Amino acid sequence: GCGGGGAKSAGAVMADDDDFDFGHVPIAWPVYFGDEECAKDDRRVLLIAQLSGWFSTKEGWECLANDLSLTPDCRVVMALDYEVLRATCPIPDVFAALDMQPLEAVACLGCSAYEVIFAARPEASKGLAVLKGLKPKKVVVNFSNYPESAVKIRSLKASHLGRIVTVTGSVVRAGPVRPKVTDMSFVCGKCGSVAKQSFEDGRFCPPRACAGEGCRSRTFAPSYSEASAMDSQVVRVQEVQGPSGGGDAGNVPRAVECELVENM
Length: 264
Prior knowledge:
The protein is α+β, with helices and mostly antiparallel strands. Helix content is 25%, strand content 25%. The protein starts with 28 loop residues before the first helix and ends with a strand.
């Protein structure tokens, strides 16, 4: 098992954000950003450092630890109330990022929470029953109470691509849960060097050419034993007719397909 239960408890004395090392390269960078280069002046590194410093304060820790749970494979789920976060977090860049680059912002939030829970403040984390005895695992971020993201299903447009949206409706069809491969290692057929390749949206895409010194082979063998995957399920959500559901009575209800991943 994962170790620990679902009970919440806090109360550890946290440090001021001045105590946090802002030149520190996040240990969880590969978990959230794969093989992307990590430079100390990268805006994501700077945002992670700011968030890690704030999560290490008493107010930030209360926001982080307020609603933690575990997935069946022991990943940590951090449920954040957006309105509480906006009222308490003094970092304007995080809200600008959530508006313009939400996937990047959510990754920074998860990475900073990982940093605080498993590296910067492990003693405080031991005071939470849900984290007791837990080995470092990816922290997944969920939002609730995010009124600015609410959109009617019939109002979804191309302008919403790449943005956080919240839709309300009924699930009218659910597909099977399938594994979605996120990355895999490949072995060069010529020199034997190993390259790790990330798959965008789960699409299989082997390396184009070997990066080994003096080798430009284009032949690779996938290493299935080193593949990383997550659960994925496609559901069809239909708007609810009537004033409370957002649908217009008398019109054909609109529907949208959604892909659920990780803990969804």
